[in-house]
Here is the input.
Amino acid sequence: MSKHLELSDPPPALADGESGSAGRRLLAPGALSAEERTRRASSQARRQERVRQVAALLRDRFPRVFCIPRLPLAVGIHQQVLDELGSDVDAKALRRFLRSWVTRTDYLDAIAHGEPLLNLDGSPAGLPTPDQQQNAAERVYGARAAAVLARIRGRSEGEQAAQIVSMADVLRILDEFRRARRARAARLSRGTLGA
Here is the structure.
């Protein structure tokens, strides 16, 4: 006859030095050794550095999409980045970066307001679904989400279509500005500025 443990039963004790089922020594909560704390901190710092490198790479290679304020990304952008960059990017660090990117308030606010989703080249990839807008509004606005969404959804379809055109115009103007800035910097470095 086997004995079943009740929820009120204490966990079985292990002999000194014996490992639990995961192969780790069981320690009281918060009783990590100094060596273990140092190892974990070092591991976390390496992960954060890899994420920073991915962020810099994406901002350099895809400035139309990975800019501030954060623009909504197309569904499947993770795979688009992996297809485009291949082995130049660490997949786990990319996943961590994107998770951080899409949980920021300005990103969620853009989704809630129905701004167009963008591919890596900056081209529109559609609009967020009503469920995506609802979820984003709840995360940003909390209890006021219903009122905010009602105001947003009160806009006409024509205003939403104009918003897509205006986003394309903004991206075009941003590209022109960047080209002009680069040309000015080149003239300045050659010493021909103002001549």
Remarks:
- The domain at 51-182 is CATH 1.10.1710.10 (Fertility Inhibition Protein O; Chain: A; Domain 1).
- The longest helix spans residues 157-190.
- The CA atoms of residues 67 and 124 lie 16 Å apart.
- Confidence is low (pLDDT under 50) at residues 1-12, 14-22.
